[in-house]
Amino acid sequence: MAAPGDATPIGSAASTEQLTEDVRARIPAPVLELMATLWRADRAAYVVGGCLRDALIGREPADWDLTTDAAPEAIAGLFPRALYENRFGTVVVRHAGSQYEITTFRRDATYSDFRHPDTVEFGSSIEEDLERRDFTVNAMAWGSSPGSEPSFVDPYGGRSDLGSGVLRAVRDPDLRFREDALRMIRAVRLAATLGFGVESETLASISRNAGLAAHLSGERIAAELEKLLAAPRPSIGLRLMAETGLLAVVLPELERQRGLGQNKIEGEDLWDHILRTVDAAPERPIVRLAALLHDVGKPDTLADGHFLGHDKAGAEMAVEMLSRLHSPRLLQERVAHLVANHMFSYQANWSDTAVRRFIRKIGPAAVEDLLDLRSADNVGSGLPADSGGLVELRARIRTQTAGRLVLRREELAVDGRDLMVELGLPPGRRLGRILDELTERVIAEPAINDRTILLDLARDLMTHDGMVDNPQS
Ligand code: ATP
Ligand code: MG
User: Whose CA is nearest to atom 6 of ligand 1?
Assistant: First the structure.
Protein backbone atom coordinates (compact mmCIF):
# COMPACT_ATOMS: atom_id res chain seq x y z
CA MET A 1 0.00 0.00 0.00
CA ALA A 2 1.37 3.40 -0.98
CA ALA A 3 1.69 6.20 1.57
CA PRO A 4 2.73 9.89 1.56
CA GLY A 5 6.50 10.12 1.17
CA ASP A 6 6.69 6.46 0.14
CA ALA A 7 9.92 5.95 -1.78
CA THR A 8 8.82 2.98 -3.84
CA PRO A 9 7.39 3.31 -7.34
CA ILE A 10 3.73 2.44 -7.70
CA GLY A 11 3.52 -0.92 -9.48
CA SER A 12 2.40 -1.04 -13.10
CA ALA A 13 0.12 -4.06 -12.63
CA ALA A 14 -2.41 -2.25 -10.44
CA SER A 15 -6.06 -2.14 -11.55
CA THR A 16 -7.64 1.26 -12.25
CA GLU A 17 -9.34 1.28 -8.83
CA GLN A 18 -6.17 0.18 -7.08
CA LEU A 19 -4.18 2.85 -8.92
CA THR A 20 -6.66 5.54 -7.91
CA GLU A 21 -6.34 4.50 -4.28
CA ASP A 22 -2.55 4.11 -4.40
CA VAL A 23 -2.15 7.61 -5.80
CA ARG A 24 -4.62 9.05 -3.27
CA ALA A 25 -2.53 7.51 -0.51
CA ARG A 26 0.55 9.37 -1.74
CA ILE A 27 -1.12 12.79 -1.65
CA PRO A 28 -0.42 14.68 1.58
CA ALA A 29 -3.45 15.40 3.78
CA PRO A 30 -3.32 19.21 3.39
CA VAL A 31 -3.46 18.85 -0.41
CA LEU A 32 -6.49 16.55 -0.16
CA GLU A 33 -8.09 19.13 2.14
CA LEU A 34 -7.64 21.87 -0.47
CA MET A 35 -9.14 19.58 -3.11
CA ALA A 36 -12.08 18.76 -0.82
CA THR A 37 -12.81 22.48 -0.44
CA LEU A 38 -13.01 22.83 -4.23
CA TRP A 39 -15.13 19.68 -4.58
CA ARG A 40 -17.58 20.88 -1.90
CA ALA A 41 -18.02 24.07 -3.92
CA ASP A 42 -18.91 21.90 -6.91
CA ARG A 43 -15.64 22.61 -8.68
CA ALA A 44 -13.15 20.33 -10.40
CA ALA A 45 -9.88 19.73 -8.54
CA TYR A 46 -6.80 17.77 -9.65
CA VAL A 47 -3.19 17.40 -8.59
CA VAL A 48 -1.17 17.72 -11.74
CA GLY A 49 2.28 17.87 -13.31
CA GLY A 50 5.69 17.26 -11.77
CA CYS A 51 4.40 16.45 -8.27
CA LEU A 52 2.29 13.56 -9.50
CA ARG A 53 5.16 12.29 -11.61
CA ASP A 54 7.47 12.39 -8.59
CA ALA A 55 4.95 10.78 -6.26
CA LEU A 56 4.47 7.90 -8.69
CA ILE A 57 8.19 7.10 -8.82
CA GLY A 58 8.68 7.57 -5.09
CA ARG A 59 10.60 10.84 -5.42
CA GLU A 60 9.87 13.66 -2.97
CA PRO A 61 7.87 16.30 -4.94
CA ALA A 62 9.29 19.85 -4.75
CA ASP A 63 5.77 21.28 -4.51
CA TRP A 64 2.20 20.09 -5.06
CA ASP A 65 0.31 21.90 -7.81
CA LEU A 66 -3.45 21.86 -8.22
CA THR A 67 -5.64 22.71 -11.18
CA THR A 68 -9.35 23.50 -11.27
CA ASP A 69 -12.14 24.79 -13.49
CA ALA A 70 -12.75 27.66 -11.05
CA ALA A 71 -11.66 31.08 -12.30
CA PRO A 72 -8.94 32.82 -10.25
CA GLU A 73 -11.45 35.12 -8.53
CA ALA A 74 -13.57 32.11 -7.56
CA ILE A 75 -10.50 30.27 -6.18
CA ALA A 76 -9.56 33.34 -4.16
CA GLY A 77 -13.16 33.49 -2.87
CA LEU A 78 -12.93 29.92 -1.57
CA PHE A 79 -9.61 30.41 0.21
CA PRO A 80 -9.61 33.45 2.47
CA ARG A 81 -5.80 33.47 2.77
CA ALA A 82 -5.17 33.30 -0.97
CA LEU A 83 -2.77 35.55 -2.85
CA TYR A 84 -3.85 36.17 -6.42
CA GLU A 85 -0.58 35.79 -8.18
CA ASN A 86 -0.19 36.33 -11.86
CA ARG A 87 -1.78 36.81 -15.21
CA PHE A 88 -1.54 33.07 -15.90
CA GLY A 89 -4.42 32.46 -13.53
CA THR A 90 -2.39 31.07 -10.65
CA VAL A 91 -3.58 31.63 -7.10
CA VAL A 92 -1.23 30.87 -4.24
CA VAL A 93 -2.99 29.45 -1.20
CA ARG A 94 -1.50 29.15 2.27
CA HIS A 95 -2.61 26.07 4.11
CA ALA A 96 -1.27 24.05 7.05
CA GLY A 97 2.04 25.94 7.04
CA SER A 98 2.77 25.55 3.31
CA GLN A 99 1.95 27.35 0.08
CA TYR A 100 0.21 25.70 -2.84
CA GLU A 101 -0.38 26.92 -6.37
CA ILE A 102 -3.88 26.46 -7.70
CA THR A 103 -4.14 27.23 -11.40
CA THR A 104 -7.26 27.54 -13.51
CA PHE A 105 -7.35 25.01 -16.41
CA ARG A 106 -5.52 26.53 -19.35
CA ARG A 107 -5.49 25.78 -23.02
CA ASP A 108 -2.73 26.36 -25.52
CA ALA A 109 -2.91 29.71 -27.24
CA THR A 110 -0.89 30.83 -30.27
CA TYR A 111 2.80 31.49 -29.85
CA SER A 112 4.51 33.85 -32.24
CA ASP A 113 7.88 34.33 -30.55
CA PHE A 114 8.87 30.74 -29.63
CA ARG A 115 8.53 31.48 -25.94
CA HIS A 116 5.35 33.23 -24.83
CA PRO A 117 1.75 32.48 -25.71
CA ASP A 118 0.25 35.66 -27.19
CA THR A 119 -2.67 35.39 -24.79
CA VAL A 120 -3.55 33.18 -21.87
CA GLU A 121 -6.79 31.33 -22.32
CA PHE A 122 -8.60 29.37 -19.68
CA GLY A 123 -9.62 25.86 -20.63
CA SER A 124 -12.75 23.96 -19.76
CA SER A 125 -11.47 20.46 -18.96
CA ILE A 126 -8.56 18.61 -17.41
CA GLU A 127 -7.89 17.00 -20.79
CA GLU A 128 -7.41 20.40 -22.36
CA ASP A 129 -5.09 21.42 -19.55
CA LEU A 130 -2.97 18.28 -19.95
CA GLU A 131 -2.77 18.82 -23.71
CA ARG A 132 -0.64 21.95 -23.31
CA ARG A 133 1.86 20.37 -20.92
CA ASP A 134 5.35 19.52 -22.11
CA PHE A 135 6.09 15.81 -21.59
CA THR A 136 3.84 12.80 -21.11
CA VAL A 137 5.23 12.15 -17.61
CA ASN A 138 4.26 15.75 -16.73
CA ALA A 139 0.81 15.45 -18.31
CA MET A 140 -0.96 13.23 -15.78
CA ALA A 141 -3.53 14.28 -13.19
CA TRP A 142 -5.41 12.81 -10.26
CA GLY A 143 -8.73 14.18 -9.09
CA SER A 144 -12.29 14.70 -10.29
CA SER A 145 -14.74 17.08 -11.94
CA PRO A 146 -18.32 17.62 -10.71
CA GLY A 147 -20.40 14.51 -11.20
CA SER A 148 -17.53 12.04 -11.31
CA GLU A 149 -15.45 10.06 -8.82
CA PRO A 150 -11.72 10.77 -8.38
CA SER A 151 -9.57 8.97 -10.91
CA PHE A 152 -6.13 8.93 -12.43
CA VAL A 153 -6.07 10.82 -15.77
CA ASP A 154 -3.32 9.86 -18.18
CA PRO A 155 -4.29 10.53 -21.82
CA TYR A 156 -0.73 10.40 -23.22
CA GLY A 157 0.62 7.26 -21.60
CA GLY A 158 2.67 9.12 -19.02
CA ARG A 159 2.68 6.26 -16.58
CA SER A 160 4.07 3.86 -19.12
CA ASP A 161 6.81 6.36 -20.11
CA LEU A 162 7.53 6.90 -16.45
CA GLY A 163 7.97 3.15 -16.07
CA SER A 164 10.46 3.04 -18.95
CA GLY A 165 12.23 6.22 -17.88
CA VAL A 166 11.46 8.16 -21.06
CA LEU A 167 10.69 11.81 -21.79
CA ARG A 168 8.33 12.08 -24.72
CA ALA A 169 6.75 15.32 -25.94
CA VAL A 170 2.99 15.57 -25.62
CA ARG A 171 1.70 15.47 -29.22
CA ASP A 172 3.91 16.69 -32.11
CA PRO A 173 7.34 17.62 -30.73
CA ASP A 174 8.19 20.02 -33.59
CA LEU A 175 5.04 22.03 -32.89
CA ARG A 176 5.56 21.98 -29.17
CA PHE A 177 9.20 23.13 -29.32
CA ARG A 178 8.30 25.86 -31.80
CA GLU A 179 5.65 27.09 -29.39
CA ASP A 180 8.08 27.27 -26.52
CA ALA A 181 11.76 26.57 -27.10
CA LEU A 182 12.35 26.25 -23.35
CA ARG A 183 10.72 22.81 -23.51
CA MET A 184 13.87 21.53 -25.26
CA ILE A 185 16.02 22.68 -22.38
CA ARG A 186 13.48 21.27 -19.93
CA ALA A 187 13.81 17.92 -21.71
CA VAL A 188 17.56 17.67 -21.17
CA ARG A 189 17.23 19.09 -17.66
CA LEU A 190 14.53 16.59 -16.69
CA ALA A 191 16.59 13.78 -18.24
CA ALA A 192 19.36 14.67 -15.78
CA THR A 193 17.04 15.31 -12.82
CA LEU A 194 15.20 12.01 -13.25
CA GLY A 195 18.00 9.97 -14.84
CA PHE A 196 15.73 9.43 -17.86
CA GLY A 197 16.34 9.13 -21.58
CA VAL A 198 14.69 11.25 -24.28
CA GLU A 199 12.46 9.31 -26.67
CA SER A 200 13.96 9.19 -30.17
CA GLU A 201 11.34 11.28 -32.06
CA THR A 202 11.47 13.90 -29.34
CA LEU A 203 15.26 13.86 -29.40
CA ALA A 204 15.41 14.20 -33.18
CA SER A 205 13.02 17.12 -32.94
CA ILE A 206 15.25 18.88 -30.42
CA SER A 207 18.19 18.50 -32.81
CA ARG A 208 16.11 20.03 -35.62
CA ASN A 209 14.85 22.91 -33.50
CA ALA A 210 17.83 23.66 -31.25
CA GLY A 211 18.42 26.98 -32.98
CA LEU A 212 15.14 28.31 -31.58
CA ALA A 213 16.70 28.36 -28.10
CA ALA A 214 18.39 31.60 -29.21
CA HIS A 215 15.02 33.32 -28.63
CA LEU A 216 14.93 32.44 -24.93
CA SER A 217 15.59 34.88 -22.13
CA GLY A 218 18.67 34.37 -19.98
CA GLU A 219 16.55 34.05 -16.83
CA ARG A 220 14.51 31.14 -18.13
CA ILE A 221 17.62 29.29 -19.35
CA ALA A 222 19.38 29.96 -16.04
CA ALA A 223 16.51 28.52 -14.01
CA GLU A 224 16.66 25.24 -15.95
CA LEU A 225 20.46 25.17 -15.93
CA GLU A 226 20.43 25.56 -12.18
CA LYS A 227 18.10 22.57 -11.84
CA LEU A 228 20.21 20.60 -14.31
CA LEU A 229 23.33 21.23 -12.24
CA ALA A 230 21.51 20.11 -9.09
CA ALA A 231 20.88 16.67 -10.62
CA PRO A 232 22.71 13.63 -9.28
CA ARG A 233 24.56 13.37 -12.63
CA PRO A 234 24.37 16.63 -14.58
CA SER A 235 26.44 15.05 -17.38
CA ILE A 236 23.31 13.23 -18.59
CA GLY A 237 21.71 16.57 -19.49
CA LEU A 238 24.92 18.32 -20.57
CA ARG A 239 25.80 15.49 -22.95
CA LEU A 240 22.32 15.70 -24.48
CA MET A 241 22.72 19.45 -24.84
CA ALA A 242 25.95 18.93 -26.75
CA GLU A 243 24.59 16.14 -28.96
CA THR A 244 21.42 18.03 -29.93
CA GLY A 245 23.15 21.33 -30.67
CA LEU A 246 21.53 23.16 -27.73
CA LEU A 247 24.93 23.73 -26.15
CA ALA A 248 26.24 25.55 -29.21
CA VAL A 249 23.28 27.92 -29.05
CA VAL A 250 23.02 28.48 -25.32
CA LEU A 251 26.62 28.15 -24.11
CA PRO A 252 28.82 28.38 -27.24
CA GLU A 253 31.93 28.91 -25.09
CA LEU A 254 31.51 25.36 -23.79
CA GLU A 255 30.79 23.96 -27.24
CA ARG A 256 34.32 25.03 -28.19
CA GLN A 257 35.73 22.59 -25.63
CA ARG A 258 34.48 19.66 -27.65
CA GLY A 259 37.23 17.95 -29.58
CA LEU A 260 39.98 19.86 -27.80
CA GLY A 261 42.67 17.39 -26.79
CA GLN A 262 43.73 16.89 -23.20
CA ASN A 263 46.48 14.60 -22.04
CA LYS A 264 44.47 13.51 -19.03
CA ILE A 265 42.30 10.51 -19.77
CA GLU A 266 43.21 8.50 -22.87
CA GLY A 267 40.86 9.22 -25.76
CA GLU A 268 38.88 11.94 -23.96
CA ASP A 269 38.66 15.61 -24.82
CA LEU A 270 38.29 18.72 -22.70
CA TRP A 271 34.48 18.47 -22.79
CA ASP A 272 34.66 14.90 -21.43
CA HIS A 273 36.87 16.23 -18.64
CA ILE A 274 34.26 18.90 -17.84
CA LEU A 275 31.44 16.35 -17.70
CA ARG A 276 33.38 14.12 -15.32
CA THR A 277 34.34 17.10 -13.18
CA VAL A 278 30.76 18.39 -12.89
CA ASP A 279 29.46 14.95 -11.89
CA ALA A 280 32.20 14.61 -9.28
CA ALA A 281 31.51 18.03 -7.75
CA PRO A 282 29.30 18.13 -4.64
CA GLU A 283 25.70 19.22 -5.33
CA ARG A 284 26.18 22.84 -4.31
CA PRO A 285 25.21 25.37 -7.00
CA ILE A 286 28.41 27.44 -6.77
CA VAL A 287 30.75 24.47 -6.94
CA ARG A 288 28.81 22.78 -9.75
CA LEU A 289 28.80 26.00 -11.79
CA ALA A 290 32.49 26.53 -11.16
CA ALA A 291 33.14 22.93 -12.23
CA LEU A 292 31.21 23.55 -15.45
CA LEU A 293 33.16 26.73 -16.20
CA HIS A 294 36.57 26.07 -14.64
CA ASP A 295 38.39 25.40 -17.93
CA VAL A 296 36.29 27.62 -20.19
CA GLY A 297 39.38 29.76 -20.81
CA LYS A 298 41.37 26.87 -22.30
CA PRO A 299 40.41 27.06 -25.99
CA ASP A 300 41.46 30.73 -26.18
CA THR A 301 44.73 30.34 -24.30
CA LEU A 302 46.04 27.21 -26.01
CA ALA A 303 49.60 27.82 -27.22
CA ASP A 304 52.39 25.26 -27.68
CA GLY A 305 50.32 22.60 -25.95
CA HIS A 306 49.83 24.76 -22.82
CA PHE A 307 46.90 26.74 -21.51
CA LEU A 308 48.82 29.47 -19.76
CA GLY A 309 46.54 31.92 -17.93
CA HIS A 310 43.39 29.93 -18.69
CA ASP A 311 42.27 30.32 -15.07
CA LYS A 312 42.18 34.12 -15.19
CA ALA A 313 40.84 34.24 -18.75
CA GLY A 314 38.21 31.67 -17.76
CA ALA A 315 37.13 33.76 -14.76
CA GLU A 316 36.41 36.70 -17.08
CA MET A 317 34.48 34.50 -19.46
CA ALA A 318 32.50 33.02 -16.58
CA VAL A 319 31.34 36.51 -15.61
CA GLU A 320 30.34 37.26 -19.21
CA MET A 321 28.41 34.02 -19.52
CA LEU A 322 26.66 34.35 -16.18
CA SER A 323 25.70 37.98 -16.85
CA ARG A 324 24.18 36.85 -20.12
CA LEU A 325 22.06 34.46 -18.03
CA HIS A 326 21.21 37.36 -15.69
CA SER A 327 22.66 35.48 -12.72
CA PRO A 328 22.94 37.54 -9.54
CA ARG A 329 26.15 39.59 -9.29
CA LEU A 330 27.27 37.81 -6.13
CA LEU A 331 26.97 34.40 -7.81
CA GLN A 332 28.98 35.62 -10.81
CA GLU A 333 31.73 36.86 -8.51
CA ARG A 334 31.87 33.75 -6.38
CA VAL A 335 32.06 31.44 -9.39
CA ALA A 336 34.67 33.61 -11.11
CA HIS A 337 36.75 33.64 -7.93
CA LEU A 338 36.83 29.83 -7.85
CA VAL A 339 37.65 29.61 -11.55
CA ALA A 340 40.44 32.18 -11.18
CA ASN A 341 42.04 30.28 -8.30
CA HIS A 342 41.53 26.65 -9.25
CA MET A 343 45.16 26.15 -10.31
CA PHE A 344 46.70 26.62 -6.83
CA SER A 345 49.39 24.14 -5.96
CA TYR A 346 49.90 23.05 -2.40
CA GLN A 347 53.28 21.85 -1.11
CA ALA A 348 53.74 19.86 2.07
CA ASN A 349 56.51 22.25 3.12
CA TRP A 350 54.11 25.22 3.40
CA SER A 351 54.48 26.86 6.81
CA ASP A 352 51.39 27.53 8.92
CA THR A 353 51.81 31.16 7.93
CA ALA A 354 51.61 30.13 4.27
CA VAL A 355 48.41 28.18 5.02
CA ARG A 356 46.93 31.28 6.71
CA ARG A 357 47.95 33.48 3.75
CA PHE A 358 46.26 30.99 1.43
CA ILE A 359 43.08 31.20 3.51
CA ARG A 360 43.27 34.99 3.36
CA LYS A 361 43.79 35.02 -0.41
CA ILE A 362 40.87 32.69 -1.10
CA GLY A 363 38.68 33.92 1.75
CA PRO A 364 37.54 31.69 4.63
CA ALA A 365 34.05 31.41 3.10
CA ALA A 366 35.33 30.16 -0.27
CA VAL A 367 38.20 27.90 0.69
CA GLU A 368 36.07 24.79 1.22
CA ASP A 369 34.40 25.31 -2.17
CA LEU A 370 37.79 25.70 -3.86
CA LEU A 371 39.11 22.45 -2.39
CA ASP A 372 35.92 20.66 -3.42
CA LEU A 373 36.30 22.05 -6.94
CA ARG A 374 39.88 20.83 -7.04
CA SER A 375 38.91 17.35 -5.83
CA ALA A 376 36.31 17.19 -8.58
CA ASP A 377 38.89 18.44 -11.10
CA ASN A 378 41.20 15.62 -9.96
CA VAL A 379 38.49 13.02 -10.49
CA GLY A 380 37.71 14.58 -13.87
CA SER A 381 41.37 14.12 -14.76
CA GLY A 382 41.38 10.44 -13.81
CA LEU A 383 43.30 11.10 -10.59
CA PRO A 384 42.37 10.19 -7.02
CA ALA A 385 40.09 12.88 -5.54
CA ASP A 386 42.66 13.94 -2.98
CA SER A 387 45.81 14.00 -5.07
CA GLY A 388 48.00 17.06 -4.68
CA GLY A 389 47.97 16.82 -0.88
CA LEU A 390 44.35 17.93 -0.58
CA VAL A 391 43.64 15.78 2.49
CA GLU A 392 46.53 17.36 4.31
CA LEU A 393 45.69 20.88 3.14
CA ARG A 394 42.06 20.44 4.22
CA ALA A 395 43.15 19.29 7.67
CA ARG A 396 45.61 22.16 8.04
CA ILE A 397 42.97 24.70 6.99
CA ARG A 398 40.50 23.25 9.49
CA THR A 399 43.08 23.52 12.26
CA GLN A 400 43.57 27.18 11.40
CA THR A 401 39.92 28.07 11.09
CA ALA A 402 38.92 26.16 14.24
CA GLY A 403 40.41 28.90 16.45
CA ARG A 404 40.05 32.67 16.21
CA LEU A 405 41.78 33.38 12.94
CA VAL A 406 42.92 36.93 12.26
CA LEU A 407 43.34 37.65 8.55
CA ARG A 408 42.25 41.24 8.17
CA ARG A 409 42.98 44.63 9.76
CA GLU A 410 39.44 44.80 11.08
CA GLU A 411 40.06 41.68 13.18
CA LEU A 412 43.17 42.98 14.98
CA ALA A 413 43.09 43.58 18.74
CA VAL A 414 43.74 47.26 17.95
CA ASP A 415 42.15 49.56 15.40
CA GLY A 416 43.01 52.88 13.79
CA ARG A 417 41.41 54.83 16.63
CA ASP A 418 43.62 53.09 19.19
CA LEU A 419 46.73 54.05 17.26
CA MET A 420 45.56 57.65 16.93
CA VAL A 421 44.65 57.99 20.61
CA GLU A 422 47.49 55.99 22.16
CA LEU A 423 50.35 56.89 19.82
CA GLY A 424 49.19 60.24 18.51
CA LEU A 425 49.28 59.03 14.90
CA PRO A 426 47.21 61.20 12.57
CA PRO A 427 44.83 59.53 10.10
CA GLY A 428 46.36 58.89 6.69
CA ARG A 429 48.38 56.46 4.65
CA ARG A 430 50.99 55.94 7.33
CA LEU A 431 48.37 54.74 9.79
CA GLY A 432 47.03 52.37 7.15
CA ARG A 433 50.47 50.96 6.45
CA ILE A 434 51.13 50.33 10.11
CA LEU A 435 47.83 48.49 10.46
CA ASP A 436 48.69 46.39 7.38
CA GLU A 437 52.09 45.55 8.81
CA LEU A 438 50.51 44.57 12.14
CA THR A 439 48.12 42.30 10.25
CA GLU A 440 51.01 40.60 8.45
CA ARG A 441 52.80 40.06 11.75
CA VAL A 442 49.69 38.57 13.36
CA ILE A 443 49.18 36.22 10.41
CA ALA A 444 52.77 35.06 10.91
CA GLU A 445 52.32 34.78 14.68
CA PRO A 446 48.69 34.70 15.85
CA ALA A 447 49.69 34.77 19.57
CA ILE A 448 50.72 38.43 19.33
CA ASN A 449 47.19 39.62 18.61
CA ASP A 450 47.02 41.39 21.95
CA ARG A 451 46.36 45.06 22.52
CA THR A 452 49.49 45.82 24.58
CA ILE A 453 51.80 43.84 22.33
CA LEU A 454 50.41 45.42 19.18
CA LEU A 455 50.65 48.94 20.55
CA ASP A 456 54.31 48.31 21.45
CA LEU A 457 54.91 46.91 18.03
CA ALA A 458 53.22 49.87 16.39
CA ARG A 459 55.39 52.25 18.41
CA ASP A 460 58.43 50.39 17.21
CA LEU A 461 57.26 50.48 13.61
CA MET A 462 56.67 54.26 13.86
CA THR A 463 60.27 54.88 14.79
CA HIS A 464 61.62 52.65 12.06
CA ASP A 465 59.42 53.11 9.06
CA GLY A 466 61.05 56.38 8.02
CA MET A 467 57.72 57.94 7.13
CA VAL A 468 56.46 61.28 8.39
CA ASP A 469 53.01 61.97 9.77
CA ASN A 470 51.74 63.78 6.73
CA PRO A 471 48.05 62.98 6.29
CA GLN A 472 48.39 63.77 2.57
CA SER A 473 51.35 61.48 1.99
P1 ATP B 1 10.40 20.14 -10.90
O2 ATP B 1 10.14 18.88 -10.16
O3 ATP B 1 11.84 20.37 -11.10
O4 ATP B 1 9.67 21.32 -10.35
P5 ATP B 1 8.40 20.25 -12.92
O6 ATP B 1 8.12 19.39 -14.10
O7 ATP B 1 7.41 20.22 -11.80
O8 ATP B 1 9.83 19.88 -12.39
P9 ATP B 1 7.77 23.02 -13.05
O10 ATP B 1 8.51 24.14 -13.68
O11 ATP B 1 7.47 23.05 -11.61
O12 ATP B 1 8.58 21.71 -13.44
O13 ATP B 1 6.42 22.88 -13.90
C14 ATP B 1 5.27 22.23 -13.39
C15 ATP B 1 4.49 21.58 -14.54
O16 ATP B 1 4.06 22.57 -15.46
C17 ATP B 1 5.29 20.60 -15.39
O18 ATP B 1 5.33 19.32 -14.80
C19 ATP B 1 4.53 20.63 -16.70
O20 ATP B 1 3.36 19.88 -16.62
C21 ATP B 1 4.14 22.09 -16.80
N22 ATP B 1 5.11 22.92 -17.53
C23 ATP B 1 6.13 23.65 -16.98
N24 ATP B 1 6.79 24.33 -17.91
C25 ATP B 1 6.19 24.06 -19.10
C26 ATP B 1 6.40 24.47 -20.45
N27 ATP B 1 7.38 25.32 -20.77
N28 ATP B 1 5.56 23.98 -21.39
C29 ATP B 1 4.56 23.14 -21.08
N30 ATP B 1 4.32 22.71 -19.85
C31 ATP B 1 5.12 23.16 -18.85
MG1 MG C 1 7.48 21.58 -10.05
Answer: 50
